[in-house]
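Need residues for this backbone.
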């Protein structure tokens, strides 16, 4: 087990997350503090397996605990973001890379196995993304279906390449959007439009997704990476503590009463108002200059 001194040293050197190739994806770092996760099995349309999901959950956990990480980006390679679960690869598949977690039965071999597999792994991936304090961006480069679609919906922001196609369409196979897609769609579309979207098994292109409010921006395919990095950099320079508190407060507000929401954000304001970023923001305003937030993240400033 690593001790505290290890984490102090690792953060001083740029964070505790190791970059490299893992099961089904590759992790790179981009300044300032952007964790870039790219699915790297294009020959399988970046289809998910139990092993990939478990490694992603572990990477997201590390991102949560790594002060050097400010923004997390998910994207794909080839012509897919992620085309759902790769059923052919669920057993005995060699997807390359270094596994972060050991083997575990894939489940789904009986009713209880399906329940446990969904609650412990498949659904946990999306709740890990939604529960991440750091802001997340899905850069949808191509097809995003079922698992890939719900993962993108779990992110805080979605930028899509023009021509990318997305949807659930599980009813085409007599299956359900069992990883939380129905909940995420209701939050974004409302009940009536979600009913239409799922019951009619719709798979839509990026421009229609933008019109529906499922993505925030559509760009040309050649511009997707650069635009995503530009946007991630903008977010990364913002006051991270207040942004993380605000992210949680926004999601909480969707499910709380007004009085509960007011009390909830008052408690968070008691933190943000007394943080060094707030003092810097006020000073920058009075001095008519751009604020320089996040000095607390700088290892040299805390030496």
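Answer:
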């Amino acid at each position: 087990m690593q001790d505290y001194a290890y984490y102090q040293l690792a953060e001083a050197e740029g964070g505790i997350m190791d970059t490299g190739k893992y099961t089904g994806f590759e992790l790179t770092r981009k300044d300032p503090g952007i964790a870039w996760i790219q699915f790297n099995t294009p020959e399988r349309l970046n289809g998910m397996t139990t092993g990939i999901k478990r490694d992603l959950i572990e990477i997201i956990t590390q991102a949560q605990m790594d002060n050097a990480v400010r923004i997390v980006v998910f994207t794909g390679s080839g012509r897919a973001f992620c085309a759902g679960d790769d059923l052919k690869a669920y057993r005995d598949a060699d997807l390359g890379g270094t596994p972060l977690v050991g083997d575990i039965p894939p489940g789904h071999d009986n009713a209880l196995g399906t329940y446990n597999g969904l609650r412990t792994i498949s659904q946990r991936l999306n709740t890990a993304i939604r529960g991440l304090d750091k802001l997340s961006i899905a850069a949808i480069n191509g097809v995003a279906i079922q698992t890939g679609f719900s993962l993108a919906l779990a992110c805080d922001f979605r930028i899509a390449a023009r021509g990318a196609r997305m949807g659930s369409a599980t009813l085409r196979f007599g299956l359900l959007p069992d990883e939380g897609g129905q909940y995420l769609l209701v939050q974004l579309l409302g009940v009536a439009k979600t009913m239409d979207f799922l019951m009619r098994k719709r798979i839509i292109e990026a421009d229609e997704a933008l019109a529906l409010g499922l993505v925030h921006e559509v760009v040309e395919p050649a511009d997707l990476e650069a635009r995503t990095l530009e946007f991630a950099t903008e977010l990364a320079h913002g006051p991270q503590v207040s942004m993380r508190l605000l992210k949680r407060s926004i999601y909480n507000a969707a499910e709380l009463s007004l009085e509960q929401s007011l009390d909830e954000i008052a408690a968070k304001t008691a933190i943000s108002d007394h943080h060094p970023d707030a003092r810097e923001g006020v000073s920058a305003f009075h001095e008519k200059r751009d604020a320089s937030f996040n000095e607390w993240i700088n290892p040299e400033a805390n030496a």
